[in-house]
């Protein structure tokens, strides 16, 4: 995959723009980057605060020949790639399954993967990434859950440099994923970085909720959770949310 980057001063959502450009003929490897988003989208219908100039908002257009049930693994591949880059920058980053990166148990990066079908075949997958780099002040309701690299380290990172590193790492991990078709090569390292590994978590599914101990992911990216009766549930990402018993992590 070769990248080609399209930059905007302002766009509604880089994920939406990647899909629009795909409809106009854009190929795999398109990267849509914007300084600001006016309608940044988060998982589960949430919005993603996207003020100008402080952070990184980008989306990659992919057209892999994979089955639909493999698509959510790309979110994990991206989370893993960003985590590796932040670790190389000596940041004590951890992963909150499936796709949040956390520093000091607060979210510093979110990933939204959207899949578009043409009949039974995948037409496009858009992987969107938001990294809080230099935000100094979050809205009241996010303050106990969100943070930025600057707030945690006092270091101002350059957006372009971080983008280049993440794109390079994702390229390597994506190619390996296409060869294996699963997460076998990243699973152990991913699990080492899992913020609530071996801790009690609350699983919130659309129609049920339960508690258990998070054990780690398996080769297809499901979170294994041991319930109090010893039964191990496989949690598939979809609409699920995982929380600490009393707070975000
Ligand atoms: C989440 O954690 O809820 C996912 C957040 C994903 C945000 C990024 S910012 C770039 C891309 N464009 C969007 O509209 N969303 C993603």
How are the elements arranged and paired?
Blueprint: E1 4-8, H1 14-23, E2 30-34, E3 56-62, H2 73-88, E4 94-96, E5 100-103, E6 106-118, E7 121-131, H3 149-153, H4 159-180, H5 187-192, E8 200-205, E9 208-217, E10 223-226, E11 232-235, E12 241-244
Parallel strand pairs: 1-2
Antiparallel strand pairs: 2-3, 3-7, 4-5, 5-6, 6-7, 8-9, 8-12, 9-10, 10-11
Helix pairs in contact: 2-4
Bound molecules: biotin.
Description:
This protein has 5 helices and 12 strands. It is of the alpha+beta class and 249 residues long. The chain has a 7-stranded mixed sheet with strand order 1-2-3-7-6-5-4, with helices on both faces. Strand 6 and strand 7 (121-131) form a beta hairpin. Helix 2 crosses helix 4 (159-180). The model has no long low-confidence stretch (mean pLDDT 93). Biotin (BTN) is lined by residues 13-15, 37, 40-43, 46, 48, 57-59, 100, 110-112, 128-130. Residues 13-15, 37, 40-43, 46, 48, 57-59, 100, 110-112, 128-130 line the site of biotin.
Concise structural overview:
The chain has 249 residues and is an alpha+beta fold. The protein is built from five helices and twelve strands.
Structural descriptors:
249 residues; alpha+beta; 7-stranded mixed β-sheet; 5-stranded antiparallel β-sheet; 12 strands; 24% helix; globular; binds biotin
Q: Quick check: average pLDDT? A: 93
The number of helical runs is 5
Strand content: 25-35%
Helix content: 10-25%
Bound molecules: biotin
Instruction: Note the gap between the termini.
Output: 35 Å
Largest sheet entry:
7 strands, mixed
**Based on CA inertia axes, which overall geometry fits?**
globular
């Amino acid at each position: 995959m070769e990248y080609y980057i399209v930059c905007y001063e302002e766009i509604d959502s880089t994920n939406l723009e990647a899909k629009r450009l795909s409809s106009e003929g854009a190929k795999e490897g398109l990267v849509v980057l914007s300084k600001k988003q006016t309608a940044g989208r988060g998982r589960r219908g949430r919005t993603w605060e996207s003020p100008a100039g402080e952070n990184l908002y980008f989306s990659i257009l992919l057209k892999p020949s994979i089955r639909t049930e493999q698509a959510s693994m790309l979110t994990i591949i991206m989370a893993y790639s960003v985590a590796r880059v932040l670790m190389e920058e000596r940041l004590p980053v951890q992963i909150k399954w499936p796709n949040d990166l956390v520093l000091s148990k607060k979210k510093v990066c979110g990933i939204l993967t959207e899949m578009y079908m043409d009949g039974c075949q995948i037409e496009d997958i858009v992987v969107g990434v938001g990294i809080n780099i230099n935000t100094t002040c979050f809205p009241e309701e996010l303050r106990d859950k969100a943070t930025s690299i600057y707030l945690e380290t006092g270091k101002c990172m350059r957006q372009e440099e971080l983008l280049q590193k993440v794109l390079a790492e994702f390229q390597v991990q994506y190619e390996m994923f296409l060869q294996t078709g699963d997460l076998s090569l990243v699973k152990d390292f991913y699990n080492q970085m899992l913020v609530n590994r071996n801790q009690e978590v609350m699983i919130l599914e659309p129609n049920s909720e339960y508690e258990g101990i998070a054990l780690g992911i398996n080769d297809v990216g499901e979170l294994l959770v041991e319930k109090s009766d010893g039964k191990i549930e496989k949690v598939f990402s979809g609409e699920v949310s995982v929380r600490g018993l009393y707070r975000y992590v």
